[in-house]
Amino acid sequence: MSDDKTPAKFRTFLILGAPGSGKGTQGKVLGSIPRFHHLACGDVFRSLDTRTSLGQKFVEFSSRGELVPDDLTVQLWRANIKQRVDSHQFKPEIDFLVLDGIPRNVEQAKYMEADIEVLKVFHLSCPDRTELARRLRKRALKDNRFDDANESVIQNRFATYEAETKPILDHYIGDRIVDIDASQSPAKVLYDIIGSIMTLEAWREQEKLRI
Fold this sequence. Notes:
The structure is a single chain. This protein has 10 helices and 5 strands. The protein is of the alpha/beta class and about 210 residues long. It has a single domain, classed as P-loop containing nucleotide triphosphate hydrolases (Rossmann fold). Strands 2-3-1-4-5 form a 5-stranded parallel beta sheet.
């Protein structure tokens, strides 16, 4: 997926956090800044062409209400990102990739190691689950997704995050992990993320290009 200018692996920032921590908001805002390209897991599935062989495999699982296997999820992600590169939406030689919602677990992270160079993992941390639940209920009601405002649904989402997604922090253990207080205002969270990015050598090198 690379040529003389395109890096062998996409320079990537992961945004990780429990449901309601604001990772989707931060991903979208970062993606609106030149030289950052945001891709959420939901975007992969929403833009899926079900006429393709990969799309048909996805339909097989989703029609049964089953989770899409990790290897198929990553294949779908690769097809989506290739399409973005081919259409010049994402220019990996000059853009940083911002991911949220994928990888969803350690297995997916392992599958994706061939594709991404994870520069930083921004962990939006908020131990106050009451506050996160409040945010989720507010968002669900705003979007008219009343089932998602159910307390048992919310607690199940937290449990799934703790069991499946949070262990990703151990997979990327070390100075790549940046803990950020997600209870702050979205503007302050963004400020902290950008401040961390601007200390990176990869960012300073990019700044020199001034493309």
